[in-house]
C-alpha cells in the first residue's frame, strides 16, 4: 500500500478517455482501482490507437488511461453480474460510470439504488451533457464538445491568413479536462464524507460543462468586455508580444508578461528605443499597435538562430522556448531530469513506455505498480480480495 489514497477502493465502470483518465489518477495516488468491463469486448479504446511494432499488446490509447488498475469482466445485463457488482459496491468508496444519463437504472445500478446499499459511496457520473437538460440523452465525443463549447472558435489560424479557420486542439482536451474535474470532485466528496457528513454523494459531471469552465480567462474576457474572442493562431488574445516568431533556423515561442520584460526583450533584440515609444510603452498600447510592432520584432529575430535568442533571453528573465515535437520533448534535459518519460514492466516482462504523473508528493510518492490490464485479467483475484469468494 502506497500513495496518499492507499485505503480507497474504486470501481471504474467507464470507457474511452474521461472516466478512465480520472480513475488512473486515483490509481496513481494509491487507490485500489478495479476496472469493470463487458466480457468479450471491454473498453472501446482497446481497439483505438497504435500497437507495438509486432502488433501485440494493448493499444496506445488504452495504455495511456489504464495503468495502476486491476480488471474484471462482468456482464451487468445478467442478474448474476448485477449481483456481483452490487457486492463489490458494498465494499467500495468510489464508483465511476459514464453510461448515458439514466442508463444504469434499468440494472439497479443507479445512484439511488447503490447509495441505499452503501451510504458512504461517492458515485461519479461522467456524461457528455449531464444528467438533466434537453441534451442529456444525446451521445457525444471530444470533437463535439470542442465545437459546442466555443473552443474551436478560438483555435486555429486567424481570418484573412492562409489556412484560416477553426481547428481541433491536438488531443482529446475535453475528455482530459473532464477527467481532471472528476478527480478533484471525487477527492472533495471523500474529504466531506470523512470529515463532515459520514455519507457519500452523487457527482454529476458533463464534458460540455467542464470544457466551458476550462476556458477560464478567455471566456471571462468576453463576459467582461463584450468582445468576442477570436482565433489568434500561436498568439495571445490579451498580451503582446506573446506568440511564435520565426528565427534564422526555426520558430521560437516568446511570452512577455509585463512592460519591464518587454524592455529587456527589446534590449536583447537591439531595439532599445521601442519601449519609450508611446505606441509600445504598455501592453494595452502594444495590443492596439501590433501591425507596426510585430514586423520590427520579427525582422530582428530573423538575424540569429533560436538557441542564441533563448540563451540571451534567459539571461534577462524573458520566457522563450522552442516548438518541440515529441521526440524533442523526450530529449529535453529538463524533461529528462523530471523523469516525465519512463518505462513500466509490461505484461510479458517487456518494457512499457509511459508518461509519468506530474505530481510529486514529498511523503507519499506516486507508485507505478501495475501495467494496463488485460480484459478480465483479475476477476478471480478481485473477487477473492474484496469478497472472499472462491473463484
Mean pLDDT: 95
Q: Do you know the CATH architecture of the largest domain?
A: 3-Layer(aba) Sandwich
Helix content: 25-40%
Structural class: alpha/beta
Which shape, going by the Cα principal axes?
elongated
Total helical segments: 15
CATH class category of the largest domain: Alpha Beta
Number of domains: 2
- Taken as a percent bin, the fraction of beta residues is 15-25%
Poorly predicted regions are none
Order of helices and strands: EHEHEHEHEHEEHEHHEEHHHHEHHEEH
Largest sheet properties: 6 strands, parallel
Strand order of the largest sheet: 3-2-1-4-5-8
Rg over C-alpha atoms, rounded to the nearest angstrom: 25 Å
In CATH terms, what is the fold-level topology of the largest domain? Rossmann fold
**Beta strands, count:** 13
CATH homologous superfamily grouping of the largest domain: Crotonobetainyl-coa:carnitine coa-transferase, domain 1
Pfam family, one: CoA_transf_3
Keywords: Transferase
InterPro entries: CoA-transferase_III_domain (IPR050483), CoA-Trfase_fam_III (IPR003673), CoA-Trfase_III_dom3_sf (IPR044855), CoA-Trfase_III_dom_1_sf (IPR023606)
GO molecular function: CoA-transferase activity
